[in-house]
Each structure stands twice: as C-alpha cells, then as structure tokens.
C-alpha cells in the first residue's frame, strides 16, 4: 500500500495544494492570527482555522476526524507553556498531542502532517512563519491518501 | 438531535468592509455559493455589515424570512461578535443563534491570490452554516462586580487613576514596589514643554493619596498572587517590612540623624547613585509615606548576605567602588557588617517604639473587582552601548542622572558639576535616541527623548551657560506646544546637529581635544564628519518594559509584547483594556509616553473600571461545561483536570460542574471518556460539523 | 576542547612574506605550549578584500577550497592567524549557509574541481584559541619570564573582531589585554584598539594609509604605551614598516616596537628568543633588544 | 574665468531598476531601511577622504543614481573594516554594499583611470588565479606599473629595511593544484554569470 502512496505523491507533488485544518486557542494563537492580519503579513491560504477557547479543549477525535475527512495536515496552536489563559490547558493538550502523534504515525501519517505550536498573541510574525513552513512541508509530503475510513488503515 | 435541525432557516451575510475584504475576496461569489447550500434561506453581501443599515438588514430578514440562524462573514469575532449578537437579538432571536466567520484578519488581509482567498472564505462560511444549525439558545450568566479596585504601581499613572476612582467614592488599594510613591516623575526636575517643576505638580497629588479616606496605600509592597475573574479577583500582597511601623512613625526623621553612620555612605537609589544615604533613610524629603526604611543590605544590624534588588544595583550607576568615583556599594558594606549595632535609631525614636528589627513581612489578602496596572517603565541601560563610554568615562551621564543633578533638592543642590565634584562644564553634548531606533538594542522610538533632551538642553544652559550640542536623528516634537518649545531652544542658541554620534572617545586628534571627550559624528546636513570636544556627555536613554514584565504578565494573566510592554486589547478602540476582562493598563507599562498622555490614559483606565463597577455586574459568556447526567459513568477523570476545581462528585456517583467557578476552557470535556461532559458554544457535534464543513466540498 | 589534538594551521600568504615573524613566533609559542599544529596541505590564498571587490563567487570559492580540504581532516579546528584570512573563511561559511545563491555558486565550483562540500569546520583565530582553549590560568602558570618591558597598547584592528563576535567583543575587545596582563604586562586604555590601519592603502593611496597609521601611533604614545601589540600581519606591517615616513610626516620621531602578541607570549612562556622572529622588527629595535634581552648576534644576523 | 557647475539632479538620471537590483545581493537587502543617521560615516576611518560619505552612497543607491554611486571615490577608499556594519542601527551590511558597488564599477569600467586601488584588486585577482597564492612583491610591481610607477619611490626606503629584515620573499609561492583551483573558479564564474 505504501508504495502506491509514494507513487501517487510523485505524480501529484507538482500542482498540489495541501488542505490544512488549524485548531487555534482563542487567547493566544487566534489573536496572533488576527495580529498577522492587522499588520498585513502574507502567508499561503491553505489553512482553515477552527477556534476553540483553549487548546485543552481538543479531543483527539477532532484531529482524527480532520484527517479522515481529507485534511493533509493538522496544526494545533496554543499559548506558550506557563501562559495558558486557563492556567494549564496547553499542558493537557501537549500530553494528548504526544500520545496522538504515536497513534497517527501507526496509521501511516508522517510527522510533518501533525504539529503543535506555541504562538502567543503578540507573535504574528511567528504565526506567519509557522504557516509558511507547515504548508511547504506538507506540500513536500504530498497529499495524504487517507480518506479511507480510519479503522481500515489502522489494521493495514 | 433532530428537533434542532427541523425547520432551520439560515441567513448568510458577507461583509465587504469597504475594500478591506472585497479587495481580495469576491464577496458576491461567496454569498451566491452560500445561497445554494442546504438550510440557507437568505444570502447577501453588503458593504458594511457593522453599520446600522447592515444590522437592520439582519433584523428585517429575521422577521421577513422567519430566519432562525444567522451567519456573518466579516472581521474577527474579537471585534464585532457582540455587535452582531445584538443585531440578532434585535431581530427577536436568541443571540447565540449567530456565528461569525473571520474573512478579514485571517483571509483577505493575509492572502494575495483572489481565487484562493475566495475559496477559503466559502469553505469557512460552509462550515459556519453547518455549525450554526446545531447551535443552542443560551443565556448569559450575570456576575456581580466587587466595587473595590487594585491599582498596581504608584507612579503618576497609578496616582492619578487611584485619585480619580477614590473621588468617585470607590475604595482603592494602591500597591507600590518602592519605598515611596511618585515613580520616575518624582525624580524629574522640570517638565516639558511648560517647564513647571515636577515636584510642585506631583507632590500635592502624592499627599492627596496619603490623605484620601478611600485609598489604602501599600508602598514597599509586591503583588504575589492573583486569583479569580472579572468582578471577583482575590489578590495577595506582600508588604515588605521597613523595620519601622508606619502606624507609629511620626515622620520626624530623628532616627535618620541618629544613625551610627554619621555621614551618609551608600549609593542613593533615588538620586541614581549620585548622592549618598544612610542605611536608614527616606528616599526624598517629600516621600509618601513619610516613614523611613531600614535597608537590610547596608544596616549593620543585619549581617547575613542578602541579594541586592535590581534597582539598587542599577542605581549604583557605573561608578560603584572600587573605582572610587562614587560611594560604597552594598557589596562592600557587607564586609564589615557586624550584626551588632548600638541601635542609636531606637533611642532617637524613644517611646514611640516605631522601630522594631524583629518586624516581619506582612501578607494581605484582598478582594477587588477590577485591577489597573500602572507599573511604568525602566530606562535603557546605557552600558549596553560600549562606544558611548558610559561606565568607562566618568563624565558620561544618563539623562536621569542629569535630572537629579540639575534638581535643586538633588545631590548637588542644583550645582551642575562634573564627577570630580567641582568643575563646571563649558561644553555639553546631548545624544538623542540612545538605545532607541536601533535594531541592536530597542527598535522603537521612545517618544519622549527628543522633548526631554530639549528640556535638559535648556536647563543645562541655564545652570552652566555652557555650549550645548544636541545630536538627533530626527527631531520629533508632535505635541501641544512642543514645536514652539523647539523654536525657543533654537533661539537660545543651542546647537542642533543632525546625525547619530558614532563614538564618544578620549583619543586626541587635535590639541584642543586634550582632556576632553570627543564626539565623532557626521553632520548629515553639512555632509561632513565632525569632531566635537565636550566636557560632559548626556545620553538620552529610551524607555523599555521592566525586566520582570513577563512575570507580571503571567501573574495577571494578560499578554505582553516581545518588547516587554503590556498589550492593549485593541490599538485604537480599546487602548486601556487587556484581553483579560476587568484588568486595565495605564502609563508606560503599555508603551512609551509622556506625562500628559500617561495622565489621560490613567483617567481612561479609571473610567473603564468605573463603568464596570457602576453597571454592578458583568455578563459571562455562557461557554461553561455541563454534565449530561444519564451518560456520566462517574469515572472521575474530569475532576483533577479542572484548574478551578469547579467539578465536584455527587453522592449519586455523578460529576457536577459549578457554573460560577467554571471558566469554559473545555479541558474536562475533551477528556471525558463517555462523552457525558459537554461545553456550551463548543459542543462536540458543533465542532465535528465545523471540521467536516471546512473539508468536505459540498 | 581540542587543545590536546591540536589545530589545523592556515598560514596565509602574509605569514610567508612580510609577516614571517608572526609565523615563527606562533609556531614557537605552540611548541612551548606543547600543542601540535598541522599545516593545511596545499592551502591557497584567501583572496582577502581584493577578491570580494572583483568577483564574490570566486572569493567564496577560494575559501571554499580551503574549507573543503580542512573538512576532510578529522580535526576540524582551522586556525588562520591573519585577520583577513580569518574573516574571509568565516564569512564564506556564514554566507554559504545563509544565501542560497552563494551556496549554489560554491557547490558548482567545488563540483567542477571534484572537491567535497565542506561541513563542520570551525574557523578559529589564535587569539580566541589561546583565550578559550588554553586559558589565562595556564598562561599565568606557564609564565617563566614575567614581562619587564614597557607599557603595551593592544591593537586588535578590524577584521578579526568585526563583524563576527567570536574572537572578541566587536566594540571593546579585551582578550589580548587580559593575555598581556596574564604575563605581567601593563596595558594602556587604547581607544583606537579597533580602528582600521587602512590595510593595503599604504601601498595604493600612500599618504592616506600613512596618515591613518600616524594617528594610531600618536595616540598609543600619548596614552603612555611604549609598544603596540597586534594580532594581524597587515596591522603590524603598516605600523612597523612606515614608521620612518610617519616620523617625517609628523615631524616627530616614532621608534615604537610593533610586536605580535605571539612574540610577547612566546617569550614570556620561555620560548627561544631566536625563534620568535624578533630580529625582523623595524621600529624600536633598541627597546626590543632591551626587553627581550636578545643578544647582539640574534639581531645581528638581520 | 570662474566655473559654475550645475548640481541639479534630474529624475530622468535616476535608474530605479538598478537600485532594486542592488537590494537583491547578499548583505544589501536592508539598504531600503536606512534612516540616514550617518553613524556609518561617523565611525568610518576613511570617510574624511571620501567625496560622498557612506550615508550619501546609500541614499544614491536608494534613489537610483547609478553613475554617481559607481564612479565615486568612496567605494574604493572603503578598507572593509566593517566598523559601519557593526554600528549601523538598521543592520545594513554597508561593507557588503561597498563590495557590490566595487564589482559593479569594475564590470562597467566606471572607476577613475590609473586609480591604484581597483588596479591592485584586479592584479591580485590575476596573481592568485595563476599561482593559487599571492606574492606581495609581484603585486606591488604590477600595481605600480599599471597605475602610477612613482608609488615605488615611496616604498624604496621601507622596502630596503624589510628586505634586510628578511621580510620580502622573492621565491614566488604557488600551490600544487593550480589547475584544480582554476577549474573551480571558472565553474563558479559560470554559475555566477548564469
């Protein structure tokens, strides 16, 4: 199965626009994205942002759901450690992230596709660089042929 | 939950925001696309949705087309969510049947490809429609506001804010880190452009603070802990001991005279280390409170080593022993601290018994509804620029040192002399923008340096009659009667040279430079390099955030720019608000500014606080978690996760969320294995729909 | 700390001509310190400032070849004593790393010459090596001849301390001063320690070059220095070779020894005076003889 | 008869494309951010000899006055001491800018004729290209002959002293792999041209 995936990548790597789902916390990263806007920074339009109050709200199912529905990458944005608006929600998020990273790897999803970034409200430029970098990396990895239902891939 | 999907009628509104959005996103196309989606009854694009006609559009459509869900694609919800909720409510719908799509800050403003941007907008709108279908009607919870206010920082900003609130009959706790209030303004000699003396206009306000029945002043104190939320903050303040009881001390200052140190010996922080003080001292004559302090680091009664607070070491200036330029620093004092003193101060105090070496720090727990941060700035450390020679050449001064030097009650009683203590300078160079507008130090313009440099030029000329050279990159005098002041200086014959000084050096090119400091600079207006020998160099240092700004930020749970200034909620429309409700900013902790602006901002902060207090309550976003009882298995996973211990465990083996304590982070919801915990406004099914919505092409 | 396994030594053209005393004293110093130096084989000229002025690509390539040769050694610490060599090598590393265009050119060039791309080479100036790897403590400990000579002005020049801050602080370098003090010398507060000597200007626009060096000498003397100590062959050459003319210019005779810091250290640590190239000094030969108690015959054969 | 040269600059003399192009070279990116503070000129040891101070050269580049920028003495007086680069509050690598202007000037033959510095640079370039190492004697001779032979007289005295001190090596150093080096160099130049 992997082989076919690789081939497919080589073919499509050219005109391929990755689809990325981004979960941003309301207090840091979402504001950073707004700041990037007000300061007119430019980055690729591949990401679709979904706002949650805190990165701690992120249920692993959300990420799996995003991949299952055809996302080529998932980006989680939260406050820097120690800066969480809710004291420690981002730590909870970090814990789940590490577990989940293993799981998705098992399912054949490369590292670059699933990222957690700490971006504070004042780091508009950082958000920009992360966006650019993420899109580049995922574009390099090619499309994620994973629209197949989760459990199927899981067993293969 | 089918009943909520039944008879759903969605209205979609795509805002052009003039050309801000329409310039990149094809709003018409987005609206047309939305019109074709299921549940959508009305779909329009409009120039300004936030305008009255725009809001009316929503209201009328709700009534006309029996809409029961609204989607507005416009700017960031942080800006206009409230506006459109109100509009929705005006139409007779529950405001939480409205959802916003951010196609400005996070789309049109950050992308250049029209097609891709439009596509993105459509995706987001599609997701919002699928989400709004599931949204529930919600009611905001009301939380009463505690009328007491905490003001942190006793500079002019804190003082003005405190007085304003106190005069409005609210009780204010004013907490100041130093031994006296007054901040930097108390150190200034005169204030630009009117040249009225800083002390004359500040000290009355200082004593007013002391006298005011509604103000509790805690100087020499630090805020240690902040809990709670808007309207109900719980704050712990540590009042560091002065070893003198404020309630018993009459401020006679006889203890100071009586100190075993007959001559003041130690670097005097208030005078930037130019003057000397005793171990027991009052920062300056008009200090408020009028209670002296005993400094552990230098008083021989205490002999254990202590770490020197940053201000002390900073105020040593460049010239602590052994260079012998200035006075002994605490480091050296400690060497002969015996730990056994005659305690002549105690005798002097007599039966007042105000002095007590056994006194301990006091902890105070207070409840306040709102907090105003006015923690101010710290001057740029001139030592960071080696080629200006501060700390190397004795006669290089910082502007703050000069303020003290020209001040009549300063260390030199207004006699402007060089560090040798006698020579009056015949020529003085004032270098602007020291540490400011420089990628290697601070990038920003500190806003006040041009004007205070002009002021110092005037004062120094007045005091010494010396030739004064101002070296500026750009002369910035944008303020009421600032330009006039510049003109006045020009007419006074002060030299103005446009160019950033490249070096302050003692190497001699021409015999006339022997024994002087030479400034090498390109006079960019003449286009030639000049060497100008002077006796005294003044470095107009810029402003930067306190080095502990990040800790303070964490303490109050607000945001802070990488430059170390606290971030306002909106640069134009919410300049004194922070992203944390009930916490406001005043003065230079938010960014460099002069005294008039600081006072104005302090007033604004006070007004914002009053507005909350007078309303009597705040409405809280109804986004707290709740338990679906029949599905809770009682596994207790959620309980330890909650940072506010809002979740309790009932006898009937079910978890319960206390809506007053819950702040709606949703961490517990994400962890619940049975899915019986949910968060209002962010229900699992709503988010699933949104995820599907952005990805699945309809 | 690679002190024990020594360093790759990159002499550079000057140390084989006007700066030969620098090489002699450097080798002697490291012999005394018992630190092996291995000369980079078939090294080529660094291109100095001239190559940059004619063709940047070629300039980078000259260094690239040297770096590439060094990259093949297991010892990756490359030591160019000449400031110009140091900077060009260091700059090449930096720019090749940061500018894709420069990288492309260099890679093309190396490919054409079947040279391996370089990586992991550390370009290090002897001053920084002596300060960090050897350390003041060891210098102090090994000092057998405490400096009895006159006050010293430490002159760092430009390219060793700028724009990179690895050798010392760009604005107010201090390490040479500390090394000198470690062997008992007194250093003066020399405000021109990082002002430029004009480099090749003395050869091209003679008067300008000479004038620059006049300023440097004059200020050092005014500050009470009896000798100037340098870390760069070009600085030493300019200050040393043109003293007679400077004296003419200034109408005031200068006879100041211009030494390499390796000569002072080498002597202090018990190096053989004959091996330190002291006889190659032109200015202040009298003082050199006195301070280094160099016997007549050492100077004689010059 | 007095001369009254006209100093007015006409906008048609400006070449905006050129200035844009300059910004593309390594180290020149930040030229556009110059705030004309003059720190570069103030800290430059040679600015006092320059026809345009470094600050002005930056201004010339930004305004696109190519001729003036390339034909001025300033760029050749720059001794690459990097003082400006480390002092510049806008982190403009002025030294690199000067290098670029030198290259441009040589490419378009815009430097003052018989002006020794560019000659030195070119001769140095040739010598090293042909031998892999520099020979100071050869360099000085060639430079002098091509620019101003009288320079040699200024050197006689110091030259003699140096010779006596054994600091003038007459044996021309050369490397073994000159061919290899040249292959590399020409390849690089190609890559550069391309």
Describe this protein's structure:
The complex is a heterotetramer of chains A (156), B (698), C (302) and D (194). Chain A has 156 residues and is of the alpha/beta class. Chain A has helices at residues 2-12, 29-38, 60-68, 89-106, 124-141, 150-155, and strands spanning 20-25, 47-52, 73-78, 114-118. Chain A has a domain at 39-143. A 4-stranded parallel β-sheet of chain A has the order 2-1-3-4, sandwiched between helices. The longest helix of chain A is centred in the middle third of the chain and has 18 residues, at 89-106. Chain B folds into 5 domains: 2-140, Rossmann fold; 149-187 and 196-232 and 365-375 and 552-617, FAD/NAD(P)-binding domain; 254-360, no CATH class; 378-544, FAD/NAD(P)-binding domain; 624-679, Alpha-Beta Plaits. Helix content of chain B is 28%, strand content 21%. In chain B, the strands form 12 sheets. Chain B has a 5-stranded parallel β-sheet, with helices on one face. In chain B, a hairpin with an 8-residue loop joins strand 13 and strand 14 (276-277). In chain B, helix 2 runs parallel beside helix 6 (114-132), helix 3 packs across helix 4 and helix 7 packs parallel to helix 17. Chain D is mostly helical and 194 residues long. Chain D starts with 15 loop residues before the first helix and ends with a helix. The model of chain D has no long low-confidence stretch (mean pLDDT 90). Chains C and D meet through helix 2, helix 3, helix 5, helix 8 and helix 9 of C and helix 6, helix 7, helix 8, helix 9 and helix 10 of D.
Q: Based on the coordinates given, report the CATH architecture of the largest domain in chain C.
A: 3-Layer(aba) Sandwich
How would you state the average pLDDT of chain D, rounded? Answer: 90
Question: Strand fraction band of chain D?
Answer: under 5%
Strand content of chain C: 5-15%
**Briefly, what CATH class of the largest domain in chain C?**
Alpha Beta
SSE blueprint and pairings:
The complex is a heterotetramer of chains A (156), B (698), C (302) and D (194).
Chain A: H1 2-12, E1 20-25, H2 29-38, E2 47-52, H3 60-68, E3 73-78, H4 89-106, E4 114-118, H5 124-141, H6 150-155
Parallel strand pairs in A: 1-2, 1-3, 3-4
Chain B: H1 2-5, E1 10-15, H2 27-35, E2 40-46, H3 52-64, E3 69-74, H4 77-90, E4 98-102, H5 104-108, H6 114-132, E5 141-144, E6 149-152, H7 156-167, E7 172-175, E8 190-191, E9 196-197, H8 198-211, E10 215-218, E11 221-229, E12 232-239, H9 254-258, E13 266-267, E14 276-277, E15 280-281, E16 293-294, H10 310-315, H11 330-333, H12 344-349, E17 362-368, E18 370-373, E19 378-379, E20 396-398, H13 399-406, E21 427-434, H14 449-464, E22 467-472, H15 482-491, E23 495-498, E24 503-505, E25 517-523, E26 528-534, E27 536-541, E28 543-544, H16 549-556, E29 583-585, H17 595-615, E30 617-620, E31 625-627, H18 638-641, E32 647-649, E33 655-657, H19 667-671, E34 677-679, H20 684-695
Parallel strand pairs in B: 1-2, 1-3, 3-4, 6-7, 6-18, 7-10, 18-29, 20-27, 21-22, 21-27, 22-23
Antiparallel strand pairs in B: 5-30, 8-9, 11-12, 12-17, 13-14, 15-16, 19-28, 24-25, 25-26, 31-34, 32-33
Helix pairs in contact in B: 2-6, 3-4, 6-20, 7-8, 7-17, 13-14, 14-15
Chain D: H1 16-23, H2 39-43, H3 54-63, H4 66-71, H5 74-77, H6 83-87, H7 94-107, H8 116-131, H9 136-146, H10 151-164, H11 178-193
Helix pairs in contact in D: 8-9
């Amino acid at each position: 199965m992997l082989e076919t995936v690789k081939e497919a990548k080589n073919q499509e790597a050219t005109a391929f626009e990755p689809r990325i789902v981004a979960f941003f916390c309301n207090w840091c990263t979402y504001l950073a994205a707004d700041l990037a806007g007000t300061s007119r920074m430019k980055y690729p339009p591949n990401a679709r942002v979904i706002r949650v109050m805190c990165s701690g709200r992120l249920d692993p199912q959300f990420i799996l759901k995003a991949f299952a529905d055809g996302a080529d990458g998932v980006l989680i944005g939260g406050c820097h450690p120690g800066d969480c608006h809710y004291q420690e929600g981002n730590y909870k998020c970090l814990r789940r992230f590490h577990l989940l990273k293993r799981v998705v790897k098992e399912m054949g999803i490369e590292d670059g596709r699933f990222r957690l970034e700490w971006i504070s409200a004042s780091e508009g430029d950082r958000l920009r660089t992360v966006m650019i970098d993420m899109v580049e990396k995922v574009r390099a990895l090619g499309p994620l042929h994973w629209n197949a239902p989760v459990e199927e891939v899981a067993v293969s | 939950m089918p009943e909520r999907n039944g008879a759903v009628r969605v209205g979609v509104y795509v805002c052009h925001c003039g050309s801000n959005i329409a310039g990149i996103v094809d709003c018409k196309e987005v609206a047309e696309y939305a019109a074709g989606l299921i549940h959508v009854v009305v779909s329009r694009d409009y120039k300004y949705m936030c305008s009255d006609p725009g809001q009316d559009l929503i209201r009328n459509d709700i009534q006309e087309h029996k809409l029961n869900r609204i989607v507005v694609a416009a700017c960031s919800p942080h800006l206009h969510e409230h506006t459109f909720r109100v509009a929705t409510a005006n139409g007779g719908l529950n405001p939480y049947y409205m959802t916003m799509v951010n196609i400005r800050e996070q789309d049109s403003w950050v992308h250049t490809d029209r097609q891709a941007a439009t596509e993105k907008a459509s995706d987001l709108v599609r997701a919002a429609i699928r989400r709004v279908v599931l949204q529930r009607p919600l009611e905001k919870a009301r939380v009463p506001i505690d009328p007491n206010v905490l003001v942190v920082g006793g500079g002019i900003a804190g003082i003005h804010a405190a007085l304003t609130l106190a005069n409005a009959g609210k009780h204010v706790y004013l907490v100041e880190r130093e031994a006296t209030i007054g901040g930097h303004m108390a150190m200034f000699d005169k204030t630009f452009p009117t040249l009225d003396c800083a002390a004359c206009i500040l000290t009355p306000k200082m004593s007013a603070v002391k006298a005011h029945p509604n103000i509790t002043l805690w100087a020499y104190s630090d805020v240690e802990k902040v809990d709670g939320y808007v309207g109900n903050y719980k704050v712990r303040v540590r009042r560091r001991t002065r070893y003198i009881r404020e309630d018993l001390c009459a401020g006679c200052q006889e203890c100071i005279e009586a100190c075993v140190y007959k001559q003041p010996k130690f670097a005097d922080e208030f005078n930037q280390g130019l003057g000397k003080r005793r171990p027991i001292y009052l920062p300056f004559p008009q200090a408020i409170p009028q209670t002296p302090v005993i400094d552990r680091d230098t008083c021989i009664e205490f002999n254990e080593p202590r770490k020197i607070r940053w201000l002390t070491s900073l105020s040593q200036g460049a010239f602590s022993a052994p260079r012998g330029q200035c006075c002994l620093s605490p480091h050296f004092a400690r060497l002969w601290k015996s730990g056994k003193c005659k305690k002549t101060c105690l005798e002097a105090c007599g039966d007042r018994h105000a002095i007590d070496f056994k006194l301990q720090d006091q902890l105070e727990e207070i409840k306040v509804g709102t907090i105003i941060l006015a923690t101010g700035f710290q001057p740029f450390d001139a030592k960071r620029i080696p080629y200006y020679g501060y700390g190397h050449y004795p006669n290089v001064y910082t502007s703050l040192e000069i303020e003290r030097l020209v001040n009549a009650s300063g260390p030199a009683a207004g006699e402007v002399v060089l560090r040798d203590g006698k020579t009056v300078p015949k020529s003085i160079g004032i270098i602007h923008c020291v540490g400011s507008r420089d990628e290697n130090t601070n990038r920003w313009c500190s806003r006040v340096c041009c004007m205070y440099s002009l002021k110092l030029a005037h004062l120094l000329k007045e005091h010494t009659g010396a030739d004064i050279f101002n070296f500026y990159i750009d002369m910035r005098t944008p303020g009421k009667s600032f330009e006039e002041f510049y003109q006045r200086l020009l007419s006074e014959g002060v030299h103005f040279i446009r160019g950033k000084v490249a070096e302050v050096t003692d190497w001699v090119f021409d015999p006339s430079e022997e024994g002087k400091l030479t400034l090498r600079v390109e006079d960019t207006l003449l286009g030639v390099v000049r060497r100008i020998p002077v006796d005294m160099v003044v470095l107009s240092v810029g402003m930067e955030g306190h080095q502990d700004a990040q800790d303070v930020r964490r303490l109050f749970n607000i945001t802070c720019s990488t430059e170390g200034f606290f971030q306002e909620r909106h640069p134009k429309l919410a300049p004194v608000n922070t992203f944390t409700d009930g916490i406001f900013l005043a003065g230079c902790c938010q960014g460099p500014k002069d005294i008039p602006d600081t006072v104005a901002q302090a007033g604004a902060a006070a007004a914002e606080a009053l507005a909350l207090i007078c309303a009597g309550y705040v409405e809280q976003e109804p986004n707290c978690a709740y338990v679906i009882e029949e599905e809770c298995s009682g596994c207790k996973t959620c309980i330890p996760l909650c940072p506010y211990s809002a979740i309790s465990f009932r006898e009937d083996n079910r978890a319960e969320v206390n809506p007053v304590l819950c702040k709606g982070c949703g961490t517990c919801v994400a962890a619940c294995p049975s899915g019986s915990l949910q968060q209002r406004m962010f229900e699992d099914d709503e988010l699933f729909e949104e995820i599907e919505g952005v990805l699945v092409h309809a | 700390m690679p002190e024990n396994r020594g360093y790759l030594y990159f002499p550079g053209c000057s140390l084989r001509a006007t700066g030969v005393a620098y090489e002699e004293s450097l080798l002697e110093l490291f012999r005394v310190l018992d630190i092996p130096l291995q000369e980079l084989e078939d090294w080529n000229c660094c291109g100095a400032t001239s190559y940059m002025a004619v063709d940047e690509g070629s300039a980078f390539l000259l260094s690239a070849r040297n770096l590439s040769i060094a990259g093949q050694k297991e010892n990756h610490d490359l030591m160019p004593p000449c400031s110009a060599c140091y900077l060009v090598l260091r700059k090449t590393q930096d720019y090749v790393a940061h500018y894709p265009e420069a990288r492309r050119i260099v890679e093309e060039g190396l490919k054409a010459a079947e040279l391996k791309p370089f990586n992991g080479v550390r370009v290090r100036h002897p001053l920084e090596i002596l300060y960090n790897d050897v350390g003041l403590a060891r210098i102090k400990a090994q000092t057998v001849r405490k400096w009895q000579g006159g006050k010293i002005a430490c002159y760092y020049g430009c390219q060793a301390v700028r724009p990179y801050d690895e050798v010392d602080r760009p604005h107010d370098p201090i390490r040479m001063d500390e090394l000198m003090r470690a062997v008992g010398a007194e250093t003066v507060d020399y405000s021109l320690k990082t002002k430029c000597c004009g480099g090749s200007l003395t050869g091209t626009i003679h008067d300008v070059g000479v004038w620059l060096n006049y300023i440097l000498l004059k200020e050092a003397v005014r500050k009470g220095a009896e000798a100037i100590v340098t870390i760069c062959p070009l600085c030493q050459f300019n200050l040393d070779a043109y003293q007679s003319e400077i004296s003419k210019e200034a109408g005031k005779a200068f006879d100041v020894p211009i030494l390499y810091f390796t000569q002072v250290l080498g002597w202090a640590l018990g190096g053989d005076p004959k091996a330190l190239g002291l006889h190659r000094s032109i200015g202040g030969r009298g003082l050199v003889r006195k301070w280094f108690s160099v016997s007549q015959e050492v100077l004689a054969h010059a | 008869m007095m001369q009254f040269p006209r100093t007015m600059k006409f906008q048609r003399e400006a070449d905006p494309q050129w200035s844009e192009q300059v910004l593309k070279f390594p180290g020149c990116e930040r030229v556009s951010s110059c705030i004309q503070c003059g720190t570069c000129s103030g800290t430059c040891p040679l600015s006092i000899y320059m026809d345009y101070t470094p600050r002005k050269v930056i201004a010339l580049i930004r305004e696109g006055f190519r001729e003036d920028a390339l034909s001025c003495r300033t760029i050749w007086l720059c001794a690459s001491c990097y003082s400006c680069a480390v002092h510049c509050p806008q982190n403009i690598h002025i030294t690199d800018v000067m290098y670029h202007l030198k290259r441009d000037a040589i490419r378009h033959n815009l430097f003052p004729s018989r002006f020794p510095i560019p000659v030195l640079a070119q001769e140095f370039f040739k010598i090293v290209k042909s031998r892999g190492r520099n020979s100071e004697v050869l360099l000085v001779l060639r430079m002098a002959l091509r620019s101003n032979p009288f320079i040699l007289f200024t050197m006689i005295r110091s030259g003699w002293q140096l010779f006596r001190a054994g600091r003038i090596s007459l044996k021309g150093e050369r490397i073994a792999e000159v061919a290899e080096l040249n292959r590399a160099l020409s390849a690089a130049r190609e890559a550069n041209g391309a």
